[in-house]
Amino acid sequence: xxxxRFFIKDTDINEENGEVEINIxxxxxxxxxxxxxxxxxxxxxxxxxxxGNEYQSVLKKVMKKNLIFSKEIMKKNLxxxxxxxxxxxxxxxxxxxxxxxxxxxxIGVTDFCPLLSDRTEKLNFNMKRAETIIREAAEQSEKNxxxxxxxxxxxxxxxxxxxTGKVEFPGETSYYLDIEAPLMDVSLIREIIEKQSNIVSxxxxxxxxxxxxxREMFESINVKPMSLGNTVLRAETASIAIASLLLLGxxx
Length: 252
Prior knowledge:
Shape: elongated
Structural class: alpha/beta
Oligomer: single chain
Number of helices: 7
Strand content: 25-35%
Number of domains: 2
């Protein structure tokens, strides 16, 4: 029987005298385990500590405000994605951006950096809900590592981070999607990734597309334009399409 998988925090794991005990007290996780999945004593699950370690555990004690598990089998340093894919989706309508986070996590995107572009209209972004969507999608798709999520970043902040060396955008593997740009050569990008770098960054615009101001910003940080062809895609479709083209077959 397939075991349920859950990402947990390092602080949930207690090791003493060679024994590992996992104490679950997070309210959301407790609700899922007790009321949705209805776990009972001796049920087995898999925990992942976000550092590449996996704990096959058995439920030992059910309490009102926490669940106690003991570790049976531990696997260390599980492999991560072969390609580090950083997606910069412009902030769009809440439900559409949440769909991007969910599906692109399943496909294998490793880092999400929502972007406030010149034409961004919807500024509401629920960080806690977004983190939950990513975590549940990673658990469902059996990822070994939890994708990272940063708070929405403006272009000016991005340029500042680039200038101070906090983030780099290599011209060979950093692109923004633009229907007016040259057609993307998927095989070439994959070749570059395999031979020179395991990191690729893609920027996907808002419903209204990139403005001239946005394009100037991209030029200043060495991000090149590429298109997926003449078909006009919705913002959320474009994010899923580019992730699928480059990642399927490369992720866990």
